[in-house]
Amino acid sequence: MSLAERAEAKPSVGRTPGERGYRRGEPGYRDITLALFAAGMATFVAMYAAQAVLPDLTSDFSVGPATAALAVSATTGFVAFAIIPGSALSERFGRVRVMAIAALASALLGCLVPLAPSMEVLIVLRALQGIALAGVPATAMAYLAEEVDSEHLGGAMGKYIAGNTIGGLSGRLLASLVLDHASWRIALEVVAFAALAFTGLFLWRAPKSRFFRPSPVGFRSTTGNLLGHLGNARLVALYLTAFLLMGGFVAVYNMLGFRLLAEPFGLPKSIAGLVFMLYLAGTVSSAWAGQLADRLGRKQVMVAGEVLTLGGLLLTLPGSLPFVIVGVALFTAGFFAAHSVASSWVGAIATEHRAEASALYLFSYYAGSSVLGACSGLFFTSAGWNGVVTYVGVLCAAAIALAALMPLLRRRRATP
């Protein structure tokens, strides 16, 4: 990590000069990383399992790919909508309490989603689930930034993101494997019970907050904190990066199942669902990138991840299954590496009101998933996979260009 980046990583305002957060190798560090890993699993098992059943929704409810994709976008869109209120509540009532209630409510709502009698009802239930889910990502980043020593924050954040990737993989894969033997309703019910189990693991292992200090919650104070973060050009650049990269990532995975089920591949549903195993590339890259950024610097690792994302995307263009598999693996690894670094960078820059800073990042992240991800169906319908690659390629290129501006923003701030 550069000297400038170390200067950004100041202790949380809840710590006295003699206090420090959990460090790698300590029991508390293992507990908090395991708990947040479980929280990430519970959240993303529930959030993205619907991607695996999108083709089934189109046939069962007689809707197009763009409408079916709303089963994902409704959840992520309302996560974005509820992120900032969730972070404000965590400032008043505590990080662990808000995450516990959010994860439990989401898992219970997930049990109701498979009972939806129509596409409209399913979308409403998924939207409510998104509101409940928001409390976990809105709070987790601030919780880690407060409780983990700044020099070990990148690695801890990487493990949390790894839980996100395995959660996303598990939800999609569980649903896909069940589809060859039962309906999409049974598949989503299995996923809901898995999310409930991981919620229990989080409740068991999450350490109490040591450095959290409750603060009054009000519209004026919350708005002031948000505007303060939006006045920081480096944070705004990271928020835009999250919007672009997450939008492109969800766009690819929304339409990937449709492509693999159609010609020239024509894969069975369970085999096509195995492509979600490629999420493991993101599990490895997110944990690795977080630790590497602690040593080499965040900007270098983030840009490398974004370039890898774009390169992997382009590899999926040929109608060859090996090319698609390798390309999606690289695309996934690059995305999660960049996301891991960007998310920890937010916690390092924002040394006060970190929950709101994290909330703005995640608002941008899930807004990109909802808005840009939903558009993927339109590009796929009009121009097939080439249209999706062109669309996402533009988003990746814009994110790379934005990362190139980060040193300029740093110098501009340093100038009196």
How does this structure look, described?
By secondary structure, the protein is mainly alpha-helical. The chain is 79% helix and 0% strand. It contains 19 helices and no strands. The protein has helices spanning 3-8, 27-48, 54-60, 65-68, 70-93, 95-112, 119-133, 135-147, 153-179, 184-205, 219-230, 233-261, 269-273, 279-296, 298-315, 321-349, 354-374, 376-404, 406-414. The longest helix is centred in the middle third of the chain and has 29 residues, at 233-261. The two termini are 25 Å apart. Mean pLDDT is 83; it is low at 1-13 and 411-416.
SS-based structural class? mainly alpha
Mean pLDDT: 83
Helical fraction:
over 70%
Helix-strand string:
HHHHHHHHHHHHHHHHHHH
Biggest sheet layout: none
Could you give the distance between the termini? Answer: 25 Å
- Cα-atom radius of gyration: 20 Å
Shape by Cα distribution: globular
Number of helices: 19
